[in-house]
């Protein structure tokens, strides 16, 4: 299936020949005029769970600074874009304290991660890292390259994207922890401290949060199979998800692609991870059920006007017997959801000979 990201023309340059100008002329790729002087040492990455406001700030800033290289937000960050909130009910489960990201990522409590996961073609990875350094963002190496589930690929670097979040939108515990991490004391009222920019809006102060963006390079074939959209540009009949979604300008994997990713992550957990019944396995299953229930509810209410109707081509991992049979055996309630969502019993039977899920 051809990649569906058709929102803007995209040009790429091989990492070895990527231009890194001393003075970028593209306004979108330069720091904003109020950005502070670049630090000699990079601040630590936040270890606190993301919330919708912080996530939107990070994604919008990333997209404005790096508009040309190809990327797509995935994992828990993409799930939050589409309306997921930690602590929600998933059928008979309430996963509010399960481990984090289903696609092989470390959890930070409350079922949400502190970082953003992004996919990119392998040939664009160097371009993204080069421009991140030009903008002034820190690039942190994760030691040895770590294998990632989902669409495959490896995570080698994490980009630190700084954003300024209104103090009122940040929990007191997080604000205190951020100040402690940077060995900073809270300023007195009216004082501009090292972390606080002051009342930019004229109403309240802001605290700096540096969010890690984990860049996962994938093969060209894997990249072309992704369905990618910009939530801010979604138009009718975008029916069942608008009210809760994060209207970011960034490029995000669509729900069928995200569901396919989590199916792969669950299969990985079952075969090479912690196994059935583990907190991680139950957490990923809860995310799959959350997506399936939203899809089914949208179809039941809006019929052909529903935003996403599943097909075998868009979510092949769902019908792979290695995933489908153990998942249905463990969570039988998903079978009618498959049917309502668009994948029929005939589809399930017809693809019993499908190739295995690549890990």
TrEMBL record:
Which ranges are annotated Polar residues under compositional bias?
23-34
- Its domain of life reads Eukaryota
Region Disordered: what ranges?
1-47
What protein name applies here? Uncharacterized protein
Q: Which organism is it from?
A: Dichotomopilus funicola
